Amino acid sequence: MRADDDRTVYLEDYRPTDFVLETVELIFELGENLTTVGSEMRFYRRGGADQSAPLVLDGDSLALSGLALDGKPLLPERYEQKHDKLIIHDLPTDEPFTLTVKTRIKPAENTQLLGLYRTNGIYSTQCEAEGFRRISYFYDRPDVLAVYTVTIIADKATSPLLLSNGNLVEQKELEDGRHMAKWHDPFPKPAYLFALVAGDLGMIEDKFTTMSRRDVTLRLFVEHGKEGRAGYAMNSLKRAMKWDEERFGREYDLDIFMIVAVSDFNMGAMENKGLNIFNDRLILADPETATDDDYGRIEAVVAHEYFHNWTGNRITCRDWFQLSLKEGLTVYREHEFSADQRSRSVIRVEEVKFLRAHQFPEDSGPLAHPVRPTQYLEIDNFYTTTVYEKGSEVSRMIATILGQDNFRKGLDLYFERHDGGAVTIEDYLKCFEDATGRDLSHFALWYHQAGTPEITASSEYDEKVGRLSLTLSQSTPSTPGQKEKKPLHIPLRTGFIGPNGDDMEPSSVSGGERRDDVLHLTKEHQTFVFEGLGARPAVSLNRDFSAPVKIEYDLPKEDLVRIAQHESDLVARWDAVNTLALNTLAAATRACQSGETIPVDPALTDTLTGFAEDDALEPAFKALALTLPSELDIGRRIGQDIDPDAIHLARNTVRDAVAKAGHKAFSALSVSPAEDAPFSADAESAGKRALRNIALSYLAAANGDATPAKEAYDRATNMTDRIAALRILAHQFTGAAETKAALEDYRERFAREPLVLDKWFTTQATIAGPDALERVQNLMSDTAFDIGNPNRVRALVGAFASSNPSGFNRPDGAAYSFFANFILTSDKRNPTLTARLMTAMRSFSALEKTRREKALIELERIASHDDLSRNLRDIIDRMLK
Ligand code: PHE
Ligand code: ZN
């Protein structure tokens, strides 16, 4: 039974609209306190639709100031406004008609940053997912594609720049110091891809010549004075455009492509047609202010939004349940781009780390949902790592199952068949089936079944005949709304590493399909039998992390070490070291809790020292291998009754032991390069910096002396080195005079750079231990902190709640209650941001009892308020179910 006031949306309720919208002409008269929006929409009744059906348009917080049909004002009895909808009756049955709607909105009061808002003198829009209805009454759904013409009128002095989607078709001066610009976008699009920007911004310009020799103008707009920091984003854009032509045959389709960087933005960036809008942290970079990670993120996100032009815009989603159709696929394309631009294995390891740190916990907690959900209360809350990153993994698995060439064939067919359409995940899958003849019906379950599959493996080797039997069993835990799970089709890349470290190739395989090194696990229990293996191999399962699963495999330690040292697949090597480290760290935590001395496995310290000394490995990979799992990783590994203080102590103890054992190697690695080497952001240079900085942190641990880190801070000529040194000081020498001095220097040095100060906030918000809360509270009164800016909030409060396990989970619960108060305040301003922040506590039930109970009290206190936003209500109710 569905209650009347239940606003839940169900996939099964999907129906096309009764009317077809062909064109829309919008006229904006911009004023920060009052903006008027005129909308002229050309409709006709859909063939076969109910001939008496009214036209029902979406709205949200709108003031209606005019309504006309074919130029004549509509009488009040012809329409009604109900539950934010505008309902119009008695519309023509055969003839097309024009509906004119006028609304008034207040951009300066829009603190939700959804719809049209004005901050720092800039008007900008955010319409995905349902923001357009805060601008005008509209069919605000992705399957309604119309051609837009947009006129913007504004004061010329304060808004010299007037931008929207498509091509500029007219521009002129008006009286009273105003001016106008008119834009036309020839490509039909859904409302969520509409964008408008007005204000006074600086610009850099470039051009790109496409594969069919068309010139495209590229413009990137940033705050005046920041033009010098936009070059890397522009360069990334050009590389992305080229790559999409070469790798996927996709060419850009308008004469101009624009990106605007804004400082107040809820998410990372938005792919509006021809006019991407970015959070400025994902555009601005120069060596003094951006880290190598920032450069990598900028490159990836600029490419991601650009790639949406085909996967998202030219072909869009039929409804929001299909969100992963565009997001999962575009993340996959983004990952492939990064892999081609940088080091494939390093990029893959970073993806695996991210997936395990964010998606796996989501998938095993109260907010778990399938890649393609079947219901939602608030779509904003479904921009999740499951829809994005697990969605990407699903496309990656399709490529693994079919092979890259066949994947490309399927995608070519998808572009050909569905260009201009609003389609479903079934449509997407069908293209791969039709292009290759492979049946993907079993595989499709990955889209519908939530939860991370768990595989248990065991193997037996028969020395006499050289036969290895590998038994794999799979199961997927229950998730909210899905109790029973079926076995999935899981492609597992598998290697056999011989005693001398070389790959072994079996002469035959039975028990299931094996192509190249991919085992196709399709049943609940399956035994693969490999013949012709002359010695017992170490079995390397899930090479390259070919499937997003958890594997329980009781591998002898010497096998794990063999894989760590010799696997030809670097991702598997990294994973083996990581497993060795997690085993040691989990044992150390247990010892800590029972007051025993903390053991540190020499197999771990030896392996890590071996990595540190191995000059054949690329530095970026070495840096990843030498980085111990985080406290959060260890907590997830332990899984229940988590005691963050014990984990903190255990990790520091293991870190110190590694530092001592590898002292000599770390000393050698920490040496700085020649003074005058010019900065380069390329992946290789970044890898060297990463390696040097991890070595520095081990040395600091081994020597217990803050001086070298302080010297590194003072000597730093780029942000990567500076922030790395600052982190060592703040996290390993918290109260030291050197730390104080460096923190003050940083605050002073970047006093006028809020984005750069975010790193300073985060560094301090993540200092472990019980003093963290007070530190965070003090930082909230720093003049640079601004509760209205999502980046500031995430850098300080978000980092504290999600990345400081011992500090946030103080046993007395004081941080929970601080956080709950913050959530309640923030929800009044910005529900999207607040609901996302709230998810930091989604795994509270895995904590040990005292903390779990204290957390629950605060969560219930939040839930007890009856005026929560729908975003927050949705998250908190699911967390408490
Ligand atoms: N569609 C954007 C992206 O991934 C994300 C986004 C969603 C931005 C909703 C704003 C609002 O590329
Ligand atoms: Zn996206």
TrEMBL record:
Residues 558-881 form the Peptidase M1 alanyl aminopeptidase C-terminal domain. Residues 232-443 form the Peptidase M1 membrane alanine aminopeptidase domain. The keyword Protease applies. Its cofactor is Zn(2+). One of its GO terms (molecular function) is alanyl aminopeptidase activity. Keywords: Aminopeptidase, Hydrolase, Metal-binding, Metalloprotease, Protease, Zinc. Belongs to the peptidase M1 family. This is Aminopeptidase N. It comes from Martelella mediterranea. The lineage of its organism: Bacteria, Pseudomonadati, Pseudomonadota, Alphaproteobacteria, Hyphomicrobiales.
